[in-house]
Design a protein that fits this description.
By secondary structure, the chain is α/β, with parallel strands linked by helices. It is about 40% helix and about 15% strand.
Length: about 260
């Protein structure tokens, strides 16, 4: 696939502004896509999450993907059948909501935290159930690499459905001893979405503008260019001297930095 270097960004980019104003600024800065978080907007104005995609498209932006909440995601691996069942039903409800609003891809964390030991069978059963629902309603589910990357590997290896794919987060991959691009290379043929940002390779997920830190962008971009990923989408926030920038200036700086790497 010839990638035309279309760019996207997460709708929250570090500035406390009304949702619709953030969307207008993203469009004004020249982005093609935006990514959403699947919860109601609560500050400074309440917006039902079922309205988010409509607002996005009204302002001329394409939807890259919708990120599902992950507060209780570890319940999908729980030894408690009741906890697993409840969390499965919550995720399936979100999938149906996103489908109804016009989303074609959702991103989900497989685990939360860094020091858990889960029963693989329980996780497989839970995520297989979720992917079965995705197949029925026709929506893609992208597993994101988080701290315990072995569970991402496991799910992508064992769940081979065309509706199950991979979301690559570069900052997660280069922080605190990550795979440094290897997981992307392994699962590039399943790549559905990317969260691109930079960091210093330490223990904190910095979400810097690409090019600011130690991520090996030559390697990462080269791999992405060989996939069918539709957008080079970022998940970035302002740091240090950038915090005093106007929101539009930060958005434009982030986009130009990314384009410089492409």
């Amino acid at each position: 696939m010839e990638n035309k270097h279309e760019c996207g960004i997460f709708n929250w980019f570090g500035y406390i502004l009304p949702f619709e104003e953030r969307i207008k600024l993203i469009k004004q800065a020249g982005y093609d896509y935006a990514m959403l978080w699947w919860e109601d907007e609560s500050y400074p104005y309440i917006i039902n999450r079922m309205e988010l995609v409509r607002i996005l498209k009204y302002h001329g932006l394409k939807l890259d993907n919708v990120h599902l909440p992950f507060e209780n995601i570890n319940n999908l691996w729980s030894e408690s059948g009741d906890l697993r069942k409840n969390e499965i039903n919550i995720v399936k409800r979100w999938l149906n909501e996103c489908m109804e609003c016009g989303a074609d891809t959702v991103v989900i964390h497989n685990t939360e935290g860094s020091s858990h030991k889960f029963n693989y069978k329980f996780g497989f059963d839970s995520f297989s159930n979720i992917i079965s629902e995705a197949e029925i309603i026709g929506i893609n589910v992208a597993f994101e690499n988080t701290q315990m990357v072995e569970y991402t590997d496991f799910l992508l290896r064992e769940i081979t459905s065309s509706k199950a794919g991979f979301c690559y987060d570069s900052s997660h991959d280069f922080v605190n001893g990550g795979s440094r691009g290897e997981i992307l290379n392994i699962w590039k043929d399943r790549l559905l979405a990317v969260h691109l940002s930079d960091n210093d390779g330490g223990v904190y997920d910095r979400h810097w503008i690409p090019g600011k830190g130690n991520v090996n962008w030559d390697k990462i971009i080269d791999i992405i260019k060989r996939t069918n990923c539709k957008s080079y989408s970022m998940e970035t926030y302002p740091f240090e001297g950038e915090k005093d920038m106007a929101p539009i200036d930060f958005l434009m700086k982030a986009k130009q930095s990314l384009l410089g790497l492409l």
